Amino acid sequence: MATRNLPGLVKTLNPFRYPSRARAFNSLVSEHTTKWMQDMSKKSPMELINEVPPIKVEGRIVACEGASNPALGHPIEFICLDLETPAVCKYCGLRYVQDHHHH
Q1: Are 27 and 34 in contact (CB under 8 A)?
Q2: What does each of the 103 residues of the chain score in pLDDT, given as a tens digit?
Q3: DSSP 3-state assignment of 30?
Q4: Which helix (H) or strand (E) holds 64?
Q5: Which residues 6+ apart lie within 8 Å of 32 measured at CB?
Q6: Cβ neighbour number for residue 59 with a 10 Å cutoff
């Protein structure tokens, strides 16, 4: 159903067809970004993800999906953990390290 509405949405957002709408949208985004950048009380997404400790896994390869719910995650990235330093997911920034302590 949503794909039927896509051509209309593309026409609506087309900056060449409606340049005033494009300017208004760009202005709104720019204003929001400026406000966010000025508020120093909030942490950036990178600061928040860096607070998460590296996730220990037993195997050499980990599959990161970003979230337990696939609808909220990202494409699966298979990460090799052969190095001693934590490996970082290129999509979400989660860090993984191989746990060499086996029971």
Answers
A1: no
A2: 455 655 554 555 555 666 666 666 666 667 766 776 676 777 888 888 889 999 999 999 999 998 877 778 899 999 999 988 999 999 999 999 998 775 5
A3: helix
A4: strand 61-64
A5: none
A6: 9
* C-beta neighbour count of 87 within 10 angstroms: 21
Q: Given CA atoms 56, 66, 72, 76 in this order, what sign does their dihedral have?
A: negative
> Taking a C-beta distance cutoff of 8 angstroms, is the pair 60, 21 a contact?
no
- The whole-angstrom distance between residue 84's C-alpha and the CA centroid of its chain comes to 25
Task: State CA 23 to chain mean position distance.
Answer: 26
Residue 27 tokens read as 């202005």
Handedness of CA 52, 46, 58, 65 (dihedral sign): positive
Q: How far apart are CA 68 and CA 24, in angstroms?
A: 37
Q: Hey, CA dihedral for 36, 37, 39, 44, is it positive or negative?
A: positive
Percent composition of the chain: helix, strand, coil (DSSP 3-state, to 5): 35, 15, 45
